[in-house]
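Saturday, quiet lab. Running sequence design on the structure tokens for the scaffold JK sent over.
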């Protein structure tokens, strides 16, 4: 039986609200994949508090599955939202039924017209040996996670410049590319990596390679056709 305090959330749920919740499902998978198997990610819906869990990844940490109810802490947060409108994310430590120590954070999800429609929760199980947890966060060439290069920059020109450096280095080390075809190969690699989506890319590439912008555009048209 639902209490009167929460009836408004259940009564006002719309198809749009449900669609908003579903859009967070992929984010839940992404965060769980990023942090690793010691991380549980849960999405609660306010539409049915008795069966609020609509998405859960690594639910074995708390023994829950889709269709499980909201927690007592979740009910307290819901009550606080109704009374104060407070939706600031909260981080805290708690314990699961088996006594495992969890570090958790909870974020309120908004639906149509900004109405709170659910909770996005992340629970990190800290009861496993710390070296075991750290191992899941480190690169391991034996598994599916492959090390890649990524440029973290504060401006677009830095991204282009670093991408150019990597592309030039990669093509120059490729013995199958002759001197005449080097610029074309570099342009192709940059195109495949999406660099020309940045506005200043064409000008910077032409200047760096010592060719005209027309030549860069010509290469791009050829590759796209």
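Result came back. Writing it out in full:
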């Amino acid at each position: 039986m639902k209490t009167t305090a929460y009836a408004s959330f259940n009564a006002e749920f719309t198809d749009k609200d449900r669609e908003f919740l579903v859009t967070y499902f992929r984010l839940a998978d992404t965060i769980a994949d990023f942090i690793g198997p010691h991380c549980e990610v849960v999405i609660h819906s306010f539409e049915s508090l008795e069966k609020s869990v609509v998405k859960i990844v690594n639910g074995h940490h708390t023994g829950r599955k889709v269709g499980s109810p909201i927690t007592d802490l979740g009910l307290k947060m819901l009550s606080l939202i109704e009374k104060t409108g407070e939706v600031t994310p909260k981080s805290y430590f708690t314990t699961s039924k088996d006594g495992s120590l969890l570090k958790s954070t909870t974020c309120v999800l908004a639906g149509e017209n900004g109405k709170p429609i659910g909770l996005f929760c992340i629970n990190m199980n800290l009861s496993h040996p710390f070296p075991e947890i750290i191992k899941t966060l480190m690169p391991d060439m034996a598994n599916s996670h492959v090390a890649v290069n990524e440029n973290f920059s504060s401006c677009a020109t830095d991204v282009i410049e670093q991408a150019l450096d990597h592309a030039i280095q990669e093509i120059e080390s490729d013995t199958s590319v002759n001197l005449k075809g080097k610029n074309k190969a570099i342009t192709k690699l940059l195109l495949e990596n999406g660099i020309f989506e940045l506005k200043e890319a064409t000008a910077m590439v032409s200047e760096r390679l010592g060719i005209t912008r027309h030549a860069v555009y010509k290469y791009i048209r050829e590759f796209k056709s």
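Notes for JK: Residues 156-172 form the longest helix (17 residues). The mean pLDDT is 85. Ask whether to fix the surface positions before the next round.
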